[in-house]
Amino acid sequence: MTFTASAEVIRYVGADPVFLDVEEGSCLVTPSGIDEALNRMPGIKAVVVVHFGGQAADMPGIMKICRARGVSVIEDAAHAFPTRCAGRMIGEWGDVTCFSFDANKTITTGEGGMLVTNDERIAKRARTMRLHGIDRDIWNRFTSASASWEYDVVAPGFKYNLPDLAAAVGLAQLKRAHEYRECRQKIAEKYLDGFRSLPDVSLPLVHGRGEDHAWHLFWLVLGPGARLNRAAFIEALSRHEIGYSVHYKPLHRMTYYKETYSLSPELFPNAERHWKGCVSLPLFPTMSAEENGFVVDTVRSLLS
Ligand SMILES: Cc1ncc(COP(=O)(O)O)c(C=O)c1O
Predict the structure, then answer these.
(1) Model confidence at 184, in pLDDT bands (50, 70, 90)?
(2) Domains in the chain, ordered, with CATH?
(3) Measuring from atom 15 of ligand 1, which residue has the nearest CA?
(4) What atom of ligand 1 comes closest to residue 104's alpha carbon?
(5) Best substitution site from 1, 4, 105 to test ligand 1's pocket, by max atoms within 8 Å of Cβ?
(6) Which residues are catalytic?
(7) What digits encode the pLDDT tens for the residues 206-226?
(8) What percentage of the chain reaches a pLDDT higher than 90?
(9) With contact defined as beta carbons under 8 Å apart, do 63 and 93 qualify?
């Protein structure tokens, strides 16, 4: 099932969202940030936690706070497959967890994703809503003894079903998910070692063990005292034919969210600092040790 944590979902839920700043270094929401928001606005019904870059947010802390208040927890695990937190997989913590299998994610079906839940009521609703609000899923229609043509539409659903061909690609990728993750961890560790002492360059803050991390992204944050500013660094990477990206321009700077919810940069100082200096470096399982070393050496020569 495809799931997009976007304006479409917010509109569907029908209530105005509250946006939180993230922790500096990890870009994760924290239990204390959530606690403070729930105290300020006791009407909040659900919290959406993004496991940014492939690292888990503090799920034991977040679940404790939310369970005590009867607040549901939805995890955006688009970056976090496979990721662990306190010995449990991401997907085993919240009420609902959404994974993405988009083309640039840790496993892919081209487009698509997966929603997991332990709640049978939510599962039933999701199964109905993913295919036009139909009360029988397509598998049931063609495998049960009752007539395949007969179905009812019981809700105003979406067209979010994962096509069979995409699912077949996903099943093949799934078998290799841990192997891919280990490759990414090795690359990330080489980056962490190589860039530790660069002046005014911040590295991702890793809370747990490296092996709990999906390592979907590896970024540097260039501060005002870095050897190059971001534009010059990006230009130099391009000159050396090193791919890069910027993850991300934050929601408070996106026109729709900024205007609809009156968001401004002063409300999100940590996200703002990250965004002003962040550059993501290449990180993919088939990256060779030579390519990894070339990026380390080039970045060091540019920023030392
Ligand atoms: C954090 C995060 N959440 C959700 C999504 C959306 O995933 P999808 O395009 O599979 O709906 C993305 C996609 O890049 C993402 O990075």
Answers:
(1) very high
(2) 7-175 (3.40.640.10), 178-303 (3.90.1150.10)
(3) 78
(4) 14
(5) 4
(6) 105
(7) 998 888 999 999 999 999 999
(8) 86
(9) yes
> Ligand 1: which atom is nearest the Cα of residue 3?
11
**What per-residue confidence (pLDDT) applies to 165?**
96
Rounded to an integer, what distance in angstroms lies between the CA atom of residue 195 and that of residue 256?
A: 36
Per-chain mean pLDDT for the chain: 93
* Cα 75 to Cα 61: distance, rounded to the nearest angstrom: 14
DSSP string, 89-101: ETTSSSSEEEEE-
Lookup result for tokens 């996200």: 271
Burial class (CB in 10 A: 0-12, 13-18, 19+), 70: exposed
Question: Has residue 303 got a pLDDT over 50?
Answer: yes
Q: What are the start-end ranges of the H helices in 51-176?
A: 59-69, 120-129, 138-143, 164-174
2 lines ligand 1 (CB under 6 A): yes
